[in-house]
Amino acid sequence: MQLVRKTVSSAEKWHAIQTRLPHPHPLQSWTWGAFKARWGWTMHPTAWEYDGNMLAAALVLKRNLPRTPYSLLYIPKGPNFDYADADLRSAILTQLEALAQTHRALAVTIDPDVVQAWGVTPQPDATGGAFVADLMQRGWRYSQQQVQFRNTCTLDLSADEDVLLAAFKSKTRYNIRLAARKGIIIRRGDSADFPIIAQMYTETAGRNDFAVRPPAYYLDLWQALFDDGMACPLIAEFEGIPVSAVIIVTYGKLALYMYGASTEQERQRMPNHLLQWEAIRWAKANGCTTYDFWGAPDEFEESDRMWGVWRFKSGFEPVVHRHIGAWDFPVRPIMYRLYNETVPRYLDFLRSRNTS
To answer: Is the pTM of this model over 0.70?
Structure first.
């Protein structure tokens, strides 16, 4: 299959290409690429055509390595194409390997929405297994840097609201109703709410021991998504005081629960349960067919860092997607190995200085 590679130069055309393909994702949007371009990357929206039809697209992010002629290429939640088409898989991987050579990259990393298995008790997916076999046969390697969540869980929004609610675990339904009875109010926010959400997000990170970027990063991202009609902030309040919030990001028919934040206040009133339910209702009312809870444990056991989050999300009875994760094609294997050995040590050093 001889594909023709094209660089896309407009947001409108890029959106049209991405949303016509099978797996559009917010991290493959023009808005995401333009945002990352303000934070050290350059974006290269690339599409592939065959016989007059656009068959694949990849928002390629490029970061130049300081004081070297080399770069790294990263395709978050992409490329986007029909993963079940074996010939197309081979052609796209060939194209990406050549693209990495063109950009003098040490490696190109892909992180596609390819499911390797389904469920808490894994049920293998044939397409995911074939994709992994292709990658390994061609010399791709499972990446040491898994930037995005490898696993997630989703809710099909095609059923009526009462059917969705009835399918939740009884404790989750109880907590949703309890929050409403106990005076929790959910309102739709706007960009004026972003600073307080960022403050709550920092508090959440400290309480749950996960790393966060500077507030300016999130404020820039949320504003960009909001301005382009992709972000909906929802805030849970008690007596007019914000106690928790979510930012739902939409792209195509997908709604992504991308950010959640809360305080220690009024937790006994279960605001997060009602907030999540209202986010699901909002997504359904706005034409989304899938609600992605964005993140599930790597291993479904209590020692996993995501176990507490999973206990909350599992109450909504979502379907677990175990993805293949991020994979690297090392164009310059020796330099790639040195880079992978050096960067984690440097990051550990920076963390030790920050905690000393």
So the answer is: yes
